[in-house]
Task: structure prediction
Amino acid sequence: MFGFLWKIVYSNIAPNGSLKLYHFIAMVTVVMIVLSQLPTFHSLRHINLCSLFLSLGYTFLVVGACIHAGTSKNAPPRDYSLEPKKSSRAFSAFTAISIIAAIFGNGILPEIQATLAPPATGKMIKGLTMCYAVILVTFYSAAVSGYWVFGNKSNSNILKSLLPDEGPSLAPTWVLGLAVIFVLLQLFAIGLVYSQVAYEIMEKKSADVKQGMFSKRNLLPRIILRTIYMIFCGFVAAMLPFFGDINGVVGAVGFIPLDFVLPMILYNKTHKPPKSSLTYLINMSIMVVFSGAGIMGAFSSIRKLVLDANQFKLFGSDVVD
Result:
């Protein structure tokens, strides 16, 4: 996504290629360093609300653009056929499962935050319900509309399909431009929210709870630690512009066990249902099925990494989908 934003925003500013993708990531990192100084997760509540509206606005624009492209006289040809080899279809399916698990892993954050203060159950249910409702509305509507228009040629970033490198734009330019702006702002919000967990861990050791949040004793370590953390994240993002493939591995190895296996284990250990009970059997079935899905997902995701390895280039400007 960073690569696509960079091409859109700066294609007319630096047509000779003097501005690279990592330059754009460095600019974004500077903005993130400033925004990351918001001291607590609670202080992000207004940014979280803006993030919700940005997600809904982006989805509305993308779905509208897809409908426009699909019903226009220049509508692209559509091919809904699957990959010819059964093995390739199976590998793609497990990779997709891993990516979906990573997407729905967004629910882990409100769950973690909710357990920090009582009553945990009520807050957790509200947070997760809102989280999954937004995911269903945004991700699936964009995915379905994009697949309807472009079939199996649909890009993982639907904006790339709507605004191809060759040929005219398939939707009004102002619509796609506004969608790009929404994405950029959304990336800031996402980065702030997910970084807050790391900040909480770091500042448990560096902060003095007996002094004020904005006291010199707490302010200076917070600025230094958060700045270093953001610089590190920006460096990794610039160095590895092929995070899409890595995302599948992360979903398989990290989110599938965390989302589907670990909760079943903890439930069985905490509540100790009888081994002959339906609850215990369902939990064990979920553990077995998703452990297998995680293993296959990790294998297929690593396989895709290997197949795309010849396209990888450190600090490159071409993003591998």
Observations:
- The mean pLDDT is 77.
